[in-house]
């Protein structure tokens, strides 16, 4: 085994640019193929273009050092950008890609022009692959990394319903359902569409037809319910798919805002069917396009929707909205063993979605209320409304399961089989980060191995991470705009991450950490949050499944503040280890809760409920958090600040003194400037009626100069089933 040193700028394939002596005078590699099992060093100030394909190497090169510089130009490895091709760096197990410990780190670059300062995407026809064999790593402690792939416009697509495989016979006008996924046709009157390269005439792809004339494993189709079976004039040929699981309703005429009955275009699915709804315009008021509903009160072409599988939770919209309502089902409890899936989005023109082997990996995630359920497979066919996968779907899928594209044209792949082996390894001391607009993937599909990115600070993650035990292990200040899918831990730890991207199909989405801000999506994970310490904010527009490890566990800390709970604008809710804080209308909708607000209206109060038995002085529940206080601007003077309170607590006649405390942090001295935190509390008696807002919580303070006063309210008393309400507008009176 030899070590070869770069002799200047140039292409990797230029044999004369490699020498066994750093200063030249030694020998060159005999060929590109002869580079297998040898070590390479890119020397300071040299930029080497990777223009070779090492995928056929038996083992790979035995390590690569990209040399840094004390004060000048560091070495750089960059992908060929000037012509299409596969540029593949294979690294032997037990060896690594490393930098050197100097002021300016060596560089790895994949972009459109080979210029370090630029961020153009590497054109999709150019494939830049770093293939880490066995225990090999990118050891990034002394490396700067910028990778810019061609990102798909659609990082994932929704999957719905069932794609039945059928054959047709013009001789009797029947469609016959073959073995996969089921030989049983849907119910008479069910709306369906067909897809295929050569459909039986006169059927048209994508047109809605209706099931009629069921006979065993066969059925006919009609253009309108009761219009009579269509006369088929040809058999068609090749694969023919019958798409089931989609119903439509004209919102202006087909939604009853008195009864909640929806009239669909065909036979509605059976009671208890999980469904998701979408609208071409504005959803009916009271419905959400992120909520999983269940069909109830099914009768012919009508049914109602409920948030749980019970009539008690049926939703009756208050306004019809506008446009067309479309309802989607999943693939059912038995008819799922097929390689073909219906997709919501046409990605045939989305360049990174391809069927090219090695660049077509996807993660199928069941996005329903189930434990982690994923498959890592390849796409073998891409059509406008369906895709074929390399393996049959192996489980029931809730409606709008997620099919995430994990492959990219810039890729770091690992064949490691250890759960703790890093793919891109920074260190706990690393204070820098990289740009990872690329694929980071462990190539195994039967288990979860490796750590996608270990530590570092301020990473920009725009591509995809999949198949890892830990996608992001730790670090601080990362921005995750891409996708994390099919990992055990998406974000294991760290602080201050910004997450506008998507996390799906993980056992734990956010396992631990604090100070994260989420504006993207979390779905299909067993636990969205496990042990999130401190504040986590979920911003308006985010779509998150709120599945927690547990509540009321001593020693566990989390507080997740949500702006749009369940996709409803301004439906604020806080999930805390000790209880929930909810923006609640004072309208008497819940027994024992306020019938009206203190002003006689139906305004919104702060509700503290789902209280946990661990609540005490050491495990308090903040109704107004000390980390996000209510701030008021007061001039110098003495002030009494009073909040009105309503409680259902009954033990001992209500909440004891010191059980609910108001704190004020204010400027108490001008020179030197000093702030004081003062507290006060009063007993809060049990409400006597649904309009009893006579109980108050107040504090008197003296501010010496004009400035902000920060107010927080904390509950340290527990009662099973109890709830506390605070009117959020205080009365402030000068004393």
Question: What secondary-structure arrangement, pairings included, does this model have?
Answer:
Elements: E1 3-6, E2 10-11, E3 18-19, E4 39-42, E5 47-50, E6 64-66, E7 76-79, E8 85-91, E9 96-98, E10 106-110, E11 126-132, E12 137-139, E13 143-148, E14 156-160, E15 162-169, E16 174-177, E17 191-198, E18 209-215, E19 218-222, E20 237-244, E21 246-250, H1 251-254, E22 262-263, E23 274-279, E24 293-299, E25 302-306, E26 324-329, E27 340-343, E28 361-365, E29 374-382, E30 386-389, E31 401-405, E32 410-414, E33 422-425, E34 435-437, E35 439-442, E36 451-454, E37 460-461, E38 464-466, E39 470-472, E40 479-480, E41 483-485, E42 489-491, E43 498-499, E44 502-504, E45 508-513, E46 517-518, E47 521-523, E48 527-532, E49 535-538, E50 543-544, E51 559-562, E52 573-576, E53 579-585, E54 604-609, E55 621-624, E56 630-634, E57 637-647, E58 654-655, E59 660-670, E60 673-681, E61 684-685, E62 695-703, E63 707-715, E64 724-726, E65 731-734
Parallel strand pairs: 1-4, 2-5, 4-6, 5-7, 6-9, 7-10, 8-11, 9-12, 10-13, 11-32, 12-33, 13-34, 32-35, 33-36, 34-37, 35-38, 36-39, 37-40, 38-41, 39-42, 41-44, 42-45, 43-46, 44-47, 45-48, 46-49, 47-50, 49-51
Antiparallel strand pairs: 1-3, 14-27, 14-31, 15-16, 15-20, 16-19, 17-18, 17-20, 18-19, 21-26, 22-25, 23-24, 23-26, 24-25, 27-30, 28-29, 28-31, 29-30, 51-52, 52-53, 53-54, 54-64, 55-63, 56-63, 57-62, 57-64, 57-65, 58-61, 59-60, 59-63
């Amino acid at each position: 085994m030899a070590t070869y040193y770069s002799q200047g700028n140039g292409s990797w394939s230029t044999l004369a640019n490699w020498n066994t002596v750093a200063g030249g005078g030694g020998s060159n590699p005999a060929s590109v193929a002869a580079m297998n099992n040898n070590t390479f060093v890119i020397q300071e100030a040299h930029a080497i273009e990777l223009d070779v394909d090492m995928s056929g190497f038996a083992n790979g090169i035995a390590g690569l050092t990209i040399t840094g510089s004390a004060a000048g130009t560091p070495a750089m490895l960059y992908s060929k950008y000037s012509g299409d091709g596969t540029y593949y760096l294979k690294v032997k197990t037990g060896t690594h890609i490393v930098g050197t410990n100097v002021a300016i780190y060596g560089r790895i670059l994949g972009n459109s022009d080979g210029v370090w300062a630029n961020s153009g995407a590497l054109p999709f026809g150019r494939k830049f692959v770093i293939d880490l064999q066995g225990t090999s790593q990118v050891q990034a402690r002394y490396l700067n990394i910028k990778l810019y792939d061609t990102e798909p416009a659609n990082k994932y697509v929704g999957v719905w319903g069932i794609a039945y495989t059928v054959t047709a016979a013009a001789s009797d006008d029947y469609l016959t359902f073959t073995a996969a996924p089921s030989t049983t046709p849907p119910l008479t009157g069910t709306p369906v569409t067909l897809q295929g390269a050569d459909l039986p005439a006169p059927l048209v792809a994508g047109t809605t037809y209706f099931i009629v004339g069921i006979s065993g494993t066969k059925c006919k189709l009609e253009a309108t319910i009761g219009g009579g079976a269509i006369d088929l004039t040809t058999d068609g040929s090749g694969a023919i798919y019958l798409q089931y699981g989609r119903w439509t309703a004209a919102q202006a005429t087909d939604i009853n805002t008195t009864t909640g009955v929806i009239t669909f275009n065909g036979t509605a699915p059976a009671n208890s069917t999980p469904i998701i709804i979408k609208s071409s315009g504005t959803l009916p008021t009271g419905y959400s396009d992120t909520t999983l509903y269940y069909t109830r009160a099914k009768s012919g072409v009508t049914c109602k929707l409920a948030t749980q599988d019970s009539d008690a939770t049926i939703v009756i919209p208050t306004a019809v909205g506008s446009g067309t309502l479309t309802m989607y089902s999943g693939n059912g409890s038995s008819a799922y063993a097929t390689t073909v899936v219906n997709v919501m989005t046409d990605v045939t023109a989305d360049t990174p979605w391809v069927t090219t082997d090695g660049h077509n990996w996807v993660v199928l995630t069941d996005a329903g209320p189930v434990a982690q359920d994923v498959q890592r497979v390849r796409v073998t066919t891409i059509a406008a409304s369906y895709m074929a996968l390399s393996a049959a779907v192996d489980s029931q899928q809730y409606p709008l399961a997620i099919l995430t594209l994990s492959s990219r044209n810039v890729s770091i792949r690992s064949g490691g089989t250890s759960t703790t082996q890093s793919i891109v390894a920074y260190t706990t001391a690393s204070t820098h980060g990289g740009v990872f607009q690329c694929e980071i993937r462990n190539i195994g599909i039967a288990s979860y191995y490796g750590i996608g990115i270990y530590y570092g600070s301020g990473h920009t993650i725009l591509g995809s991470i999949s198949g890892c035990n830990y996608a992001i292990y730790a670090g601080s200040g990362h921005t995750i705009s891409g996708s994390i899918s099919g990992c055990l831990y998406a974000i294991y730890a760290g602080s201050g991450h910004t997450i506008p991207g998507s996390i799906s199909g993980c056992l734990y989405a956010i396992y631990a950490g604090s100070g994260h801000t989420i504006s993207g999506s979390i779905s299909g994970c067993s636990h969205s949050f496990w042990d999130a310490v401190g504040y986590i904010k979920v911003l308006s527009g985010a779509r998150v499944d709120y599945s927690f490890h547990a509540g009321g566990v001593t020693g566990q800390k989390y507080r997740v503040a949500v702006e749009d709970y369940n996709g409803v604008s301004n439906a604020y809710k806080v999930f805390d280890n000790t209880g929930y804080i909810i923006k609640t209308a004072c309208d008497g909708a819940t027994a024992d809760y306020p019938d009206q607000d203190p002003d006689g209206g139906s305004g919104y109060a702060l509700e503290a409920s789902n209280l946990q038995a661990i609540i005490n002085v050491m495990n308090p529940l903040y109704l107004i958090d000390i980390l996000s206080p209510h701030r008021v601007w007061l001039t110098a003077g003495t002030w009494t600040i009073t909040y009105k309170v309503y409680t259902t607590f009954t033990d001992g006649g209500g909440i004891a003194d010191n059980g609910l405390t108001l704190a004020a942090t204010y400027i108490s001295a001008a020179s030197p400037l000093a702030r004081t935190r003062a507290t006060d509390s009063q007993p809060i008696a049990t409400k006597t009626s649904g309009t009893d807002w006579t109980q108050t919580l107040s504090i008197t303070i003296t501010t010496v100069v004009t400035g902000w006063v920060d107010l927080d309210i904390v509950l340290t008393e527990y009662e099973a089933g109890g709830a506390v309400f605070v009117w959020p507008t205080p009365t402030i009176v000068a004393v």
